[in-house]
Amino acid sequence: MPSKPVMGNKKIIIYILYILISILIIVFNLVFANIPNGYILLLVLSFMAIALIRVRDKLSFLYGLALLIVLSVVGIIQFEYFPQARVLYEAGLTPWELLVSFHPHSVRYLVSYPAVLITHFFNTDINSSYTYYCIILLSIMMMNVQDVVNLIKKDKGISNALVLRGMVGILPIILLSSLMNGRLVPAFAGMSMILKEMTGLFFLKKKLDTRLLIIVFFGFFITTVSSGTMMVAAGEIVACLVIYMIKFRRQGTLLFFSIIFSPILYVAGKYIIFMTNRNILYFGGGLEGFIKMLNHGFGRLFHYTPLIILTFCVLMIFFLSIMSKVYFYFLRNKLEYIPLVISFPIAFIGGLFGISTALMIVPSLIVIGLLVVGI
């Protein structure tokens, strides 16, 4: 007989976790008296919001939220509100005023606007508010990563493996959050949303629905903190949808959604072109500006000796040829893994223009790490 999940009464386990974490928050508030009351209220509201999440997802979300909050309170994890958004925040402009003016940082400010709302409503400073916002996004990322692994392993319910997977999976996220720039957190969370929904689309072979499209669009939206991360996310979405619809003979659906969402695609495409041109102009414009822009990523190697350039080109061709063989193998035998596999060459190509763009592969790497470890 198949083994049953070890946790029979799910609700009791969840409520015990609620109580333990609430006690932990109170204790930290007593020890570290400088924590703003608004921040404590935010924590209480976040645990109330957890009730809206499916039971099997609550554990991974709780692990991430609890650990990251504790590390934030003791000062190990702190994120600074990024400068471009801070300038707009201090100017007191609303997101709508920035959008209608087509300000180059308006979308970036809009992505980070929840931190501004937290500051206004709970009287916390903008850096603390943005740190809390990033903690929520990282916890969502952890939940999405675990969902992808669950889909691949076809795990259902709550079991020892699920608990262990959550505990191990949060470790690289904690490491990253203590080292990386806070600007990348929304991009990572957005990419994890896209990866989860696309993996579910291929594994479950379901039709495109409104819920999936809304989540994918929102995931794409919060990756717009950088033009590079935005283009990687767009590449992942377009590649997955085209492969899915052609493979499952749903060209009619592709045509239908292309027509219906063409206004959104037009605006998104226009914004991508605008951001790309802005970056090129920032570095001098034209071909020279394009080449200088490569200094932010692997493309900086093009400024070295011809031998290094040649070596890099050979390695890149070798890598892409291997990835193409891997891609066609999965396309013929394990189509469900396509969203995971295709994210590698897309992020690698994006890495030519920025290291942060290449880091969009992080959610996929964590998934593969959990699969390799065998949890």
Give me a quick take on this structure.
The protein has 19 helices and no strands. By secondary structure, it is mostly helical.
For the termini, the CA-CA separation is: 21 Å
Task: Give the mean pLDDT.
Answer: 72
Question: What general form does the structure show?
Answer: globular
In percent terms, what proportion of residues is strand? under 5%
Number of discrete helical segments: 19
Largest sheet, in brief, is: none
Cα radius of gyration in angstroms: 22 Å
Give structural attributes:
375 residues, mainly alpha, 2 domains, 76% helix, globular, disordered N terminus
Give an account of the 3D structure.
It is a single chain. Helix 1 runs parallel beside helix 3, helix 10 packs parallel to helix 12 (227-247) and helix 12 runs antiparallel to helix 17 (338-350). This protein folds into two domains: 9-182, no CATH class; 201-375, no CATH class. Helix content is 76%, strand content 0%. The protein has helices at 10-31, 37-49, 55-73, 83-91, 95-100, 106-111, 113-122, 126-153, 160-179, 184-204, 210-222, 227-247, 251-260, 262-282, 286-293, 306-333, 338-350, 355-358, 362-373. The chain is mostly helical. It contains 19 helices and no strands. Mean pLDDT is 72; it is low at 1-8.
